[in-house]
Amino acid sequence: MTTIDLSYVRSQFPAFSEPSLEGQAFFDNAGGSYACQDVIDNLNRFYRQNKMQPYGAHPASRRGGEEMDHSHAEIAAYLGVNPEEVHLGPSSSQNIYVLAEAFVNRLAVGDEIIVTNQDHEANNGVWRRLAKRGIVIKEWQVNPTTGSLELSGLEALLSPRTKVVAFTHCSNILGEINPVREICEIVHGAGAIAVVDGVSYAGHGFPDVSELGADIYLFSLYKTFGPHLGAMVIRRPIMDFLGNQAHYFNAQFLAKWFVPAGPDHAQVAAASGVTSYFDKVHAHHFPKADISERAANVRNLFKAAEATLLPQLLDFCANDSRVRLLGPTDAKNKAATLSLQTLKASPREVSERLAKKGIIAGASHFYAVRLLEALGVNPETGVLRLSFVHYATPEEIQQLIQALDQSL
């Protein structure tokens, strides 16, 4: 198995050579990753050279439109879908809001939508609000001990009137990776549409959406080394079913259908820097390959890098009596995201102590209020969340463990 070259990878992120961040170990990636150099360069160049309405007659305007189209094509290729199926909006929360509004105009009173209490509120609250408009909302509840979603719970909720099932690929609190393909098969067997929130998964490697079987897949580019945008894949049959949500006279522009606010030209153009980074990583570690193989190789490389470091941190947290580790203690089916209920001091106090020791970590409910309540955790107090991605080093893991031991 190819081992990740951390020196090369970290050279692609300006944050690691930033003097003000020297010695600071970044363990808040679930809140937003560092941006790679290619994204920063793309954004800088666009603002200098192409900051005007795109797709016009002037070469600079035309070039801006071409760069935006390039981002759609490159991101689609890494996700295993068609460019027309990728929609780049202001954020995942905003994208899901538009999506829910599109669905409610195609559903009938009494139709059912299933949500979970494991999800981030973005893939939760907007669907629940549709109850005011006659849609029946059912909740697929987690196991209150483990926080896991059990397939039998979903199967018990499905009915002939189920139209949408909204769930998460990976919990942003537990780090547990759900069996998306299996869930999608169950959902499709009931004749419903699967809406998958991949925000907490995609930073650990872009998935093959076609392989997953998701009808709609969403994630945040700012958590995958890119600009502050939300990416939403909607497979073409679902696009046609929902219809254009933007200005009627833009119906021929499929990329605008689910971005009624209009695209952020510069950030959309900059987004291709993410896939440029993936291409560079692949070229550094692997022989030349087609896009599907590149995507798989990069995904597996990132996964292996995290899997090497995760067990040591998990072991420390699972065996320290000063914390309650939420979710799985086994790294096998877990992303590199851990949440701790701190028992001797508040999560905020611990995060402040960690900051003084060069550890960047978050303390909050992280918009997963319903999950914390189900697990008996006060959302106002929240949890300490530690999250890393492939660019973390063994030395940083040791720095974190030592700082935790001194701060808990």
UniProtKB/TrEMBL annotation:
Q: Which UniProt keywords apply?
A: Aminotransferase, Pyridoxal phosphate, Transferase
Q: Which GO terms describe its molecular function?
A: transaminase activity
Q: Which domain of life is it from?
A: Bacteria
Using the record's annotation, list all stretches that form the Aminotransferase class V domain.
26-236, 307-400
One Pfam family matching this protein: Aminotran_5
Signal peptide from the UniProt entry: none
PANTHER family listed in its UniProt record: CYSTEINE DESULFURASE, PYRIDOXAL PHOSPHATE (PLP)-DEPENDENT ASPARTATE AMINOTRANSFERASE SUPERFAMILY
What is the name listed in the Swiss-Prot or TrEMBL entry for this protein? Answer: Aminotransferase class V-fold PLP-dependent enzyme
Give the originating organism.
Pseudomonas synxantha
